[in-house]
Amino acid sequence: MTTANRHPLETILEDRIAIIDGAMGTTIRTYGMTEADVRGERFKDSTKDLLNNGDLFSLTQPKMICDIHRRFLEAGADIIETNTFGATSITQSEFFVDDPREHGGRKDPEFYQKIIEDSKLSSLAWEINEQSAQQCREWADRVGNATGRQRFVAGAIGPLTVSLSNSPDADDAGFRVVTFDQVKAAYAEQVRALIAGGSDLLLVETIFDSLNAKAALVAIREVFDQDGKKLPVMISAAVGRGGETLISAQTTEAFWNAVQHVRPLSVGLNCSLGPDLMYPFLEELSEKADVAISCYPNAGLPNPLSETGFDLGPADMARYLGDFARGGLINIAGGCCGNTPEHIAAIAKALEGKAPRKLRQVEVAA
Q1: For residues 32 and 51, is the Cβ–Cβ distance under 8 A?
Q2: Within 10 A of 263 (CB to CB), how many other CB atoms are there?
Q3: How far is CA 288 from the centre of its chain?
Q4: How far apart, in whole angstroms, are the C-alpha atoms of residue 322 and residue 305?
Q5: Strand partners, 80
Q6: In 10 A of CB 141, how many CB atoms?
Q7: What count of other Cβ atoms lies within 10 Å of the Cβ of residue 94?
Q8: Cross-strand partners of 204
Q9: Closest to 354 in 3D by CA, of 13, 9, 17, 10
Q10: What is the pTM for the complete model shown?
Q11: What are phi and psi of 47, to 5 degrees?
């Protein structure tokens, strides 16, 4: 890629460690939202509980979502994520479509084909993604213009509630509830809406299931080819105690080998175990990958008795991410579950002036 065509974030990553924002869900909880708040007038008659549908707040409580974006930006985030972690028609169906298993049926490809073809779900998914991207765009530009420092919008593409890697039927290992093409179609719809809303980047994140992620990456490639517009892609996996993706059980190295052909802007780890347990897997990925490395861990392990639901405070996260920087492991840093704007502010301060990881040059065989 020539210098003229380089994305501005690539230049930043050569000079310093870029900061990505924290946890939308955790921060929403600090606003004390109720079931009535997430429903608003528009969804007041929905038959299922919606409070755990955090993406819906972009439509029903946009002022709150924009306030969260503003706070993360003012805390020092260079990159803010759209509030679209579950904004596919497949995931939204969990909140708006009756579960056939409650009536003696089952979820299978026939069921999910109806979901993919449901115009109301499709319209809802598009609206959530487009409006969330627009909300991010507005505040990234506002704060960027006010501070003289460009900020970037990452279109967040999260995992699904269904798996392509595993069967839910213990008696039929070959059964899958959904097909690759159905997952790809849902992701393609999300990608187009995120681009339409003004995203600078696409972030395939919290990858539990590598095959689901593969469908997302294929969808992105096809959208780029068909629509004639290409954005940088970030990829981030969640791993367990052995360093494997949680559903498909790919090792960190195998995960990188499976996605490196995409030539992403960055690859990394997020969510997962907390920063203390993540270090060896991040170190391995940093040694193998020849692109920028991102890291935004949970604030430790879940603890329902703590204020944020996780153990580690801002000072703790700043210390751990500072250790990662001193180890020469990271180019992009932030926080996942349990990380509020206060956590991100502490991380940003701790990493100020720290050198970014040097990109490893990989020899290509003739």
Answers
A1: no
A2: 11
A3: 22
A4: 27
A5: 153
A6: 14
A7: 16
A8: 157, 235
A9: 17
A10: 0.94
A11: -85, -15
233 by Cβ neighbours in 10 Å (0-12 / 13-18 / 19+) ranks as buried
Residue 336 structure tokens: 């996942």
Nearest to 283 by CA among 312, 315, 316, 253: 253
| Counts of helices then strands in the chain (DSSP H, E) | 14, 8
Q: pLDDT 10s per residue in the chain (366 long)?
A: 334 478 899 999 999 999 999 999 999 999 999 999 999 999 999 999 999 999 999 999 999 999 999 999 999 999 999 999 999 999 999 999 999 999 889 999 999 999 999 999 999 999 999 999 999 999 999 999 999 999 999 999 999 999 999 988 888 999 999 999 999 999 999 999 999 999 999 999 999 899 999 999 999 999 999 999 999 999 999 988 887 777 778 888 999 999 999 999 999 999 988 898 899 999 999 999 999 999 999 999 888 888 888 999 999 999 999 999 999 999 999 999 999 999 999 999 999 999 999 986 554 433
Q: What are phi and psi of 106, to 5 degrees?
A: -150, 160
Q: What is the CA 320 to chain-centroid distance, rounded?
A: 21
149: number of Cβ within 10 Å: 12
Judge contact between 97 and 117, C-beta under 8 A: no
Can you give 284-305 as a three-state secondary structure string?
Answer: HHHHHCCCEEEEEECCCCECCC
